Amino acid sequence: MQDPVNISTVASAIQLSVAPAFLLTGIGAILAVMANRLARVVDRFRVLRYMKEGRQPREIEEMNMLLRRSRWVHWAISLSTISALFVCIVIAALFMGTERQVFPSRFVAFSFIVAMLALISGLLCFLREIYLSTNTIQKQDVEEYSA
């Protein structure tokens, strides 16, 4: 029969890891959105790249903007993935600490802070990419309507 102290300790570790697990789910959803945006940027770049006729200056400018956007999304995805990895480390540290009856509170706190900083940075990169995409649309709309 299991020792009641061990069962309550494991139950406590599970309770502590529930919030990071939900955070991990949220980060996964954000990553899906970012990957979708990157796929759209890549698809548009490919269309422009394989155009048969000579490229106009406007198309070259759009390709340069798509390249900048892809770099921002790349950084957003990378930083968000790093955040997810650190959340996984937090969850693993909580369970390992419970198993070994050592409570790595400083390590868990440090890992969680790094995860949040990486997520914040990733979201800021994503925000920059969104700004670039909407700025491009506004410039094109103004050019089309003024011509």
The fraction of residues assigned to DSSP E strands is: under 5%
- Rounded average pLDDT: 86
Structural class: mainly alpha
> How many helices in DSSP terms?
3
- Structurally, the number of domains stands at 1
The value of Rg in angstroms is 22 Å
What are the low-pLDDT stretches, counting only 5+ consecutive residues below 50? Answer: none
State the end-to-end CA separation: 82 Å
Helical proportion, percent range: over 70%
Sum up the overall morphology in one term.
rod-shaped
Q: How is the main sheet built?
A: none
Q: Would you count the extended β strands for me? A: 0
- Helix-strand sequence: HHH
Structural notes for this entry:
- The chain is mainly α and 147 residues long.
- The chain has one domain (4-146).
- The chain is built from 3 helices and no strands.
- It has helices spanning 4-49, 57-100, 105-146.
- The termini are far apart.
- The relative contact order is 0.13.
Task: Describe the SSE topology.
Layout: H1 4-49, H2 57-100, H3 105-146
What attributes does this structure have?
147 residues; 3 helices; 0% strand; rod-shaped
